[in-house]
Amino acid sequence: MGLFDRLRKAFGGQPAEQPEETSASASASTALAESTAAASASAADSTSAAAASIPVESGSTAAPAAPMDEAVSMAAEPAPASVPDQAVAASVQSASASAVAAASAAASESAAQAAATAASASLSAAAAESASLSEAAAATENTGSEAPAEDASLARYDKGLAKSRTSFGDRLNHFLARFRSVDDAFFDELEETLIEGDVGFETALKITDELRDEVKLRNAKKKSDVAEVIVEKMVDLYGEEGAGEDNSLHFSTDGTPTVFLFVGVNGAGKTTTIGKLAHRYQEQGKHVLLAAGDTFRAGATEQLVEWGRRVNVPVVTGPAESDPAAVVYDAVHRAKEENADIVLVDTAGRLQNKVNLMNELAKIKRVITRELPEAPQEVLLVLDGTTGQNALSQAKEFTKTTNVTGIVLTKLDGSAKGGIVLAIRNELHLPVKLVGLGEKMDDLADFDPNKFVYGLFKELIVR
Ligand SMILES: Nc1nc2c(ncn2[C@@H]2O[C@H](COP(=O)(O)OP(=O)(O)OP(=O)(O)O)[C@@H](O)[C@H]2O)c(=O)[nH]1
Ligand SMILES: [Mg+2]
Question: How far apart, in whole angstroms, are the C-alpha atoms of residue 237 and residue 426?
């Protein structure tokens, strides 16, 4: 079973045959439209259009939406592990809808928390049905003290991906509205639509090629059938490419301090991500140190020091324009002496030129490994999620010279280019490990691939 079917099984179902589920499904669409309305009126229109227009052709019947408080109370009852699929799916949908509605309507904190917690519990139950989803559930359990952040992230994913979802759904709908028959011109245009949707060039070609055969094979003529095959292909390809992918952050195994090195072009969000992560580990009671390895840009050290002050974590600094590797050496040395748990190393996004930057990063890495042979446990490439294809080219550039272990995708809260996640996996084969969902210290979430892809294609998966 491909990822598409597994997600549909976990999150969706057959609305027309199951009255209860139909109302849960309708409430999901309603909640989504409401949440988007809060962000932008025109976006809400197109989101409901995207939610309505494709399923209408598939023959699903509209049903009155469940009142929001009813949906919340449904969500408040976590599904037992052995409940049938349909019930789980209904419960997941309503819980997810409630979480979005509660968050977007700025309802009381506790309501949002309750809905998110219930959604997470139901998700775990539903996840037992599929291998990849149960991995996600296991990862959630393993995070232990990070669990509350994980729960709250469910509502944030929905909200954070609203723009990307609308943008992609719109594009697909506009495209489908233009074609009359499934011919060569159709596939050429589809290819362009997918590239514009930031799924990546190679991915767009691959999907279109596979689609030619699949559409013929299934004799798909109706627009809704073709749309389904398109999304199914995208989700399944994403699922296949992610087999064995490890989205977790790695820590030292021998009791020595863990070191995470952050790299990426200027403005991507390195310093901000370090501040957020420092906050996370500090809250967990870990001994955290920050290393101000960007001595090049004026104000960069001060920016990290300010983050350190805000989240109550010490920062190791050096004079302006001094050797960044010396600052990092000091930080690692201090971490060893103090028996610190984790060192987060900031680096410059730009030096005199690209070669200097790459050489500098290599030198910093050597200094770390000389002091701590297992470290750095992570070299995290920070990419600005609003830049789409540009982020992908940057990533290709960095990975040529630096041994990147994972991606941090920032600014998803304001991005319409969430589709870049498909391209990162399919073309770079690097795991996204963290996502930035705002500028504040709590606006960072562990990346959950299945929740993400569900958030991106929600209306097209849940039918
Ligand atoms: N909305 C939003 N803004 C973010 C996010 N992450 C970072 N930013 C903002 O992006 C801007 C640049 O972030 P920095 O952390 O300074 O980027 P940097 O990679 O350290 O940049 P240099 O130090 O110039 O190399 C800041 O205004 C941040 O507040 C995010 O997840 N969401
Ligand atoms: Mg910085």
Answer: 8
> What CA–CA distance (Å, rounded) separates 11 from 262?
35
CA distances from 304 to 4, 138, 163, 405 (A): 42, 34, 30, 23
Measure the CA–CA gap between 167 and 183, rounded to whole angstroms.
Answer: 25
**CB distance 241 to ligand 1 below 6 Å:** no
293 lines ligand 1 (CB under 6 A): no
Taking only Cα atoms into account, the Rg of the chain, rounded to an integer number of angstroms, comes to 23
All structural domains of the chain: 3-160 (no CATH), 165-241 (1.20.120.140), 258-456 (3.40.50.300)
Residue 349, marked binder: yes
> 268 among the known binding-site residues?
yes
Report pLDDT digits (tens) over 263-289: 999 999 999 999 999 999 999 999 999
What integer pLDDT is reported at residue 421 of this predicted model? 85
Residue 391 Cα to ligand 1 midpoint, Å, equals: 14
DSSP label at residue 15: G
φ/ψ of residue 44, rounded to 5? -65, -40
| Cβ 123 vs Cβ 455: under 8 Å | no
Residue of higher predicted confidence among 222 and 424 = 424
pLDDT tens, position by position, 169-213: 777 778 878 877 778 888 888 888 888 777 778 888 888 888 888
User: Does the beta carbon of 442 lie inside 6 Å of ligand 1?
Assistant: no
Asked if residue 270 has its Cβ within 6 Å of ligand 1, the reply is yes
The answer to whether the CB of 294 is under 6 A from ligand 1 is yes
Q: Is 347 annotated as a binding residue?
A: yes
161 pLDDT above the threshold of 90 = no
Residue 12 confidence (pLDDT): 60
Each residue's pLDDT tens digit, 371-411: 999 999 999 999 998 888 888 888 888 888 889 999 999 99
Is 137 annotated to bind ligand? no
Q: 413 in ligand 1 pocket by Cβ < 6 Å?
A: yes
**CA–CA distance, 194 with 207 (Å, rounded to integer):** 9
Q: Are 461 and 238 in contact (CB under 8 A)?
A: no
Better pLDDT: 140 or 399? 399
Q: Are 167 and 39 in contact (CB under 8 A)?
A: no
Residue nearest to atom 12 of ligand 1 (CA): 267
CA atoms within 13 A on the CB side of 435: 29
The residues placing their C-beta within 5 Å of ligand 2, an ion, are 270-271
Cα separation, 212 vs 424, whole angstroms? 24
Top mutation candidate among 315, 439, 440, 444 for ligand 1, by most atoms within 8 Å of CB: 439
